[in-house]
Amino acid sequence: MKRMSKMMPVAVMVVMMVVLAVGPAAAQPRQQEILVLRGHEGSVYSVAWSPNGERLASGGQDTTIHIWDAENGDRLAVIDSHNAPVWTVAWSPDGSMLASGSDDQTVRIWDAETYEQITSFEAHNGWVSMVAWSPDNERLASVGGDNAVRIWDVAGGVELNELTGHAYWVNAVAWSPDGTRLATGGGSGYPDNTVRLWDADSGEQLAVLRAHRGEIWSVAWSPDSDIVLSGSSDATVRVWESTSFDRLDTLEGHNDTVYSVAWSPNQDQIASSSKDQTIIIWDTDGGELLDLRGHTDRVMSVAWSPDGTMLASASLDGSVRIWQVN
Q1: Where are the domains of the chain?
Q2: Which CATH superfamily is domain 12-324 in?
Q3: What is the pLDDT of residues 159-192, one digit of tens each?
Q4: What's the pLDDT tens digit per position in 221-239?
Q5: Could you tell me the end-to-end alpha-carbon distance of the chain, in angstroms, rounded to an integer?
Q6: Which single residue of 37, 66, 298, 312 has CA 20 to 30 Å from 9?
Q7: CB pairs under 8 A, 24+ apart, for 178-181?
Q8: CA 217, CA 122: separation in Å to the nearest integer?
């Protein structure tokens, strides 16, 4: 049963937080204003910004998806249709649809205006850990607990391809902005803990990238599709060239698992979040710019606003937070 509610936020707080600026240019801590959005009953696993920057979607342990006004924090709707925790939410590139994946083994597609369910897929023989849209709005990739990467025709509601190669469950998937390739990340243990690159049309495995010493939790493409990021339980972010497959850099700043990585839209900054309860903003030369603190439990997901000035985060502390970073 789907429940939608129009309501004012009863637990939205505007908070002044100390943000530690680090690196050569930093001297004094800066004050940052953030919104703290509370409404989920339990942990929040995923957050996504709508393409027009006006709304946020979040999914959590309470089996619901919440839709938020990104400017003032009002809760616009609650979608209650999954039968288990929601691990992932993603807006379609044109903003007309929202996809979600759950422990109930399904992927569901929602109308982004009415929040009515458009279709659903019995997607995996296990939990659905992440979904990613193709840039043309027509296909959706999903990964999960059955070690498979699946590609779906959204309009037709059919599976187009199954990509196999990971030895264990797959935590992460991202579609390259040019639409030609997929990146996935898996674990846990040898012979996996790998990042894999795939041809999005043929399903051919293009590369297996090995360097992390733990399972991969997140992958992200640069806006120009040239570079791939990966975050791992080894507490590092690795930077890979997407055609030569060379490892370009290793970003070390977190002291525990890196759950989420994201490129800024203008490609000059990287955000990462961790079990250590922090978010780090890096410049693309590998320098640490900001250390964002405020969450009181592990930070599972980060997402940039389309204009690159704001960052949203989701945490096991039950909150979604919006940070002014630029």
Answers
A1: 12-324
A2: YVTN repeat-like/Quinoprotein amine dehydrogenase (2.130.10.10)
A3: 999 999 998 899 999 999 999 999 999 977 667 8
A4: 999 999 999 999 999 999 9
A5: 40
A6: 298
A7: 178/135, 178/225, 179/134, 179/135, 179/136, 180/225, 181/206, 181/225, 181/242
A8: 23
